[in-house]
Amino acid sequence: MKYTRLTKEQLEELHQEFINFLASQSITATEWQEIKTNKPEVAEQELDVFSDLIWEGVLAKVEYIEHISKQQLFLFKINEDHMSLIGIKVENEAIDIRTKEGYQWLQQNLLEEQVTLFTSTKAISEDRNKDIFVLIQQGGNITKGQLYEFFNERLENK
Questions:
Q1: According to the lineage, what is the superkingdom (predicted)?
Q2: Of 78, 98, 102, 154, most Cβ neighbours within 10 A?
């Protein structure tokens, strides 16, 4: 298995897609029940293959990832051959940028001494999707990139 197995909840959400996946392998509902009962290891393998297929499809479309903690913000833009990072660190222990108030404070104090901004780029490896998956495993969330673009614009106009 290349990624991780989808959770029970995710599999339930993708019930129809899983049925289509089984059908593409000429496995009927009756045969699937039989496999689950008599060959649980084969059923596990099918779930793993399906999970990897779903992950591949999702990861191929990812353009932005955000990882937000109390005082740090890591914003990634994923391109074909590299990823760009905007990193923000707040040096004020009283500020929690995950809250509305903390985020407003950050916007108003972005260029102050208590805020460290940095950017970086990193080449994408041969396995782009695996690079993205690692960021997600570390707590990143797939987004549409509004935060990245907001801060990128601020940095360009600095």
A1: Bacteria
A2: 78
Assigned domain for 3 exists:
no
Domain housing 53: 8-61
pLDDT(127) > 80 = yes
**CA 47 to chain centroid:** 21
Longest dimension (CA), the chain: 65
Whether 158 shows a pLDDT value over 70: the answer reads no
For residue 74, the tally of other CB atoms under 10 A from its CB is 20
Q: DSSP of 78-106, one letter per residue?
A: E-SSEEEEEEEEE--TT--TTSHHHHHHH
Half-sphere exposure of 134 (CA within 13 A, CB side): 9
Give the residue-averaged pLDDT of 47-75.
95
